[in-house]
Design a protein that fits this description.
This protein is an alpha+beta fold. It contains twelve helices and four strands, in the order ααααβαββαβαααααα. Strand 2 and strand 3 form a beta hairpin.
Length: 334
C-alpha cells in the first residue's frame, strides 16, 4: 500500500478511536443525569399560574427542609403495654444522629383505644435517592419493639415508594428503545454487524449529549427534569438511527456500483450530508422554539433537546462514515 493511500486510512481510524474514547469516558453520564435533575412541582406549571405563585410563597413559611416519617405500632394482643411504649421510645431515640435524620424524634403517643402507638421521625429532604434505605432503617428499628407490628408511613415513606417505583426507569427506557431499534434494523438490513454499529453510534451520541447536559445543569446553565431526561434518550437514539439509515443506504448504493469503500464513503457523505444537516437543523430549531413556552419543563426541553440533536448529527456524520470505511462490505454481512 502506497504512503498516500495509507494516509487516507488515518482519518477513519482516528475518528473511530475518538468515538470509542467518548463512549468509554462519557457513556456513564447517561445514567448520572438524574443526579442534577429537578422534579419540582412548579416545573410542570405555567410561570404565570396562581399555583406557581402559591408554591413560591410557601417557601417563606417552611421552617425546615425535612420530611416526616410516621411510625405506627399495633399491638398483636389487645393493648399496648407500658414496656412496649418504653421500647418504642427507645427505638425512635436510637435513630437520632443517623445520616439524614434531622433532630430528635417526637415522643411516642398512644392511641385513644390503647391498641397502638405512633411517633414521628424527621428525614432531611436532601436524602433524595437514599430515601428507601432510610425508611427501611426506620422500619427495622421500629420492629425491635416486641409484641407489636411496626409500620412506616407519611410523606417520607411515600417519597421512598416513588423512588423504588421509578428506580432504573431511565435505563429501562433506553434499553427498550435500543432493543426496538435493533430489531427494526435487523429486519430492514438482514445483516448483523451494521445494526450493531448504528446502535453503538446512538449510544455514543447519547453519552456525549448526557455529559454536556450534566455539566450545563450542574452549573445552572440549563434545567433538567425527569421528563427532559427521558425525552433526550429517545430523541438522540431515534435521530442518530434515522440519519444513519440515509448515509448507510447511500454507501450501499456506491458499493453496488463497484466503488472503492473509501471513495464510496466520501461520495455517500457528500450526497447525504446536506439532507441530514437540514433535517437535524429543522428539528433543533423547532426544539429551541420551546424556549417561548410558558411551561418551565417545556422551556428546559428546548436547549437540551437541541443539544441531543447536535450530538446525533455529529455521530452520524463522523463516527458512522469512519466505521463504514473500515468495515466496507463486511458491514452488510451476511
Amino acid at each position: 500500500m502506497s504512503t498516500p493511500r495509507a494516509a487516507r486510512w488515518v482519518v477513519p481510524v482516528v475518528l473511530a478511536l475518538v468515538w470509542l474514547g467518548i463512549g468509554g469516558t462519557l457513556g456513564p453520564y447517561a445514567g448520572k443525569l438524574g443526579e442534577v435533575a429537578t422534579n419540582e412541582q412548579s416545573s410542570f406549571l405555567p410561570s404565570s399560574a396562581e399555583s406557581t405563585r402559591v408554591l413560591e410563597q410557601q417557601n417563606a413559611f417552611q421552617q425546615g427542609n425535612t420530611i416526616p416519617a410516621i411510625v405506627v405500632w399495633e399491638a398483636r394482643d389487645g393493648r399496648i403495654s407500658p414496656d412496649q411504649r418504653e421500647a418504642a421510645g427507645r427505638a425512635l431515640a436510637s435513630l437520632q444522629g443517623d445520616p439524614f435524620i434531622s433532630g430528635p424524634p417526637s415522643p411516642v403517643i398512644p392511641s385513644q383505644d390503647g391498641a397502638a402507638l405512633s411517633g414521628v421521625v424527621q428525614v432531611g429532604s436532601e436524602a433524595g435517592e437514599e430515601s428507601p434505605e432510610i425508611v427501611d432503617r426506620i422500619r427495622e428499628t421500629a420492629e425491635q419493639v416486641p409484641g407489636a407490628s411496626a409500620h412506616v408511613g407519611g410523606p417520607a415513606a411515600t417519597q421512598a415508594d416513588f423512588s423504588d417505583a421509578f428506580a432504573g426507569i431511565d435505563t429501562m427506557l433506553v434499553l427498550v428503545a435500543l432493543s426496538v431499534v435493533l430489531v427494526i434494523l435487523l429486519l430492514v438490513y438482514r445483516s448483523v454487524l451494521l445494526p450493531l454499529l448504528i446502535i453503538l453510534g446512538a449510544v455514543f451520541a447519547l453519552g456525549f449529549a448526557s455529559a454536556i447536559a450534566y455539566h450545563l445543569a450542574r452549573n445552572d446553565l440549563v434545567t433538567v427534569d425527569g421528563q427532559v431526561q427521558g425525552i433526550l434518550s429517545i430523541l438522540v437514539i431515534g435521530a442518530t438511527t434515522d440519519y444513519a439509515l440515509l448515509l448507510s443506504a447511500r454507501f450501499r448504493e456506491e458499493l453496488a456500483l463497484g466503488t472503492d469503500r473509501l471513495a464510496a464513503v466520501q461520495t455517500a457523505w457528500r450526497r447525504s450530508a446536506g439532507a441530514i444537516v437540514a433535517s437535524g437543523g429543522t428539528v433543533a430549531l423547532g426544539l429551541l422554539a420551546l424556549l417561548l413556552s410558558d411551561l418551565s419543563n417545556n422551556r428546559a426541553l428546548g436547549p437540551v433537546g437541541a443539544l441531543g440533536i447536535a450530538c446525533a448529527l455529529l455521530s452520524a456524520l463522523t463516527y458512522l462514515p469512519a466505521v463504514l470505511a473500515l468495515f466496507g462490505r463486511a458491514a452488510y454481512w451476511p
